[in-house]
Amino acid sequence: MMTAPDLTTPRERIRSGRMRRQAERWSWMFMRFSGAILILLIFTHLFVNLITGDGVSQIDFAFVAGKWADWWWQWADFLMLVLAMLHGGNGMRLLINDYAHRKTTRTVLMGVLGVAVAVVIVLGSLVIWTFDPCPVDADPSLLPSFCATVAA
Fold first, then answer.
1. Distance between CA atoms of 110 and 108, rounded to whole angstroms?
2. For the segment 2-25, what is each residue's pLDDT rounded down to a tens digit?
3. Which of 84 and 22 is assigned the larger pLDDT?
4. Nearest 5 degrees, angle CA 94-CA 100-CA 103?
């Protein structure tokens, strides 16, 4: 009678890099849930930006300023940014675990991945949350229509 191989031996754990089964289960569940939410967010984003109105020709500073003047769009874009980076980072973590066989290589790659994900989330968050839709010295023809009422 054949039995399944024992994947919990120390040799297998070191080679694959996957040592915590419960953490891998949560990682698997996160990928499924975040993927489903990302599909909804991305298709909403594409529909609003490309299909409604004048299509891609409407996307300029005023369009983005008008969207980000609404708190809902800021939160939707922030959620999309964070989920996309964590989802992609988790996928890259799995690839690193599968293909980086040396511990030092795996450690370096995981560190670079963690820094890259954190930097993109921080910089993207700064853009979303500190964006000024009505800059003082901007050309009024480039600003959204609601900026004239704010300045007055």
1. 5
2. 555 555 554 445 455 555 678 888
3. 84
4. 110
Burial label, 110 (beta-carbon count in 10 A; 0-12, 13-18, 19+): middle
**Under CATH, what is the fold of the domain 19-151?**
3 helical TM bundles of succinate and fumarate reductases (1.20.1300)
DSSP reduced 3-state for 17: coil
Lowest mean pLDDT among 50-54, 89-93, 120-124, 127-131: 50-54
Give the domain ranges of the chain. Answer: 19-151
- Write the CA distances from 11 to 8, 16, 28, 51, 119, integer angstroms: 8, 9, 23, 53, 34
This prediction's pTM: 0.76
Exposure b/e, 125-135, CB count within 10 A at least 16 = b: eeebeeeebbe
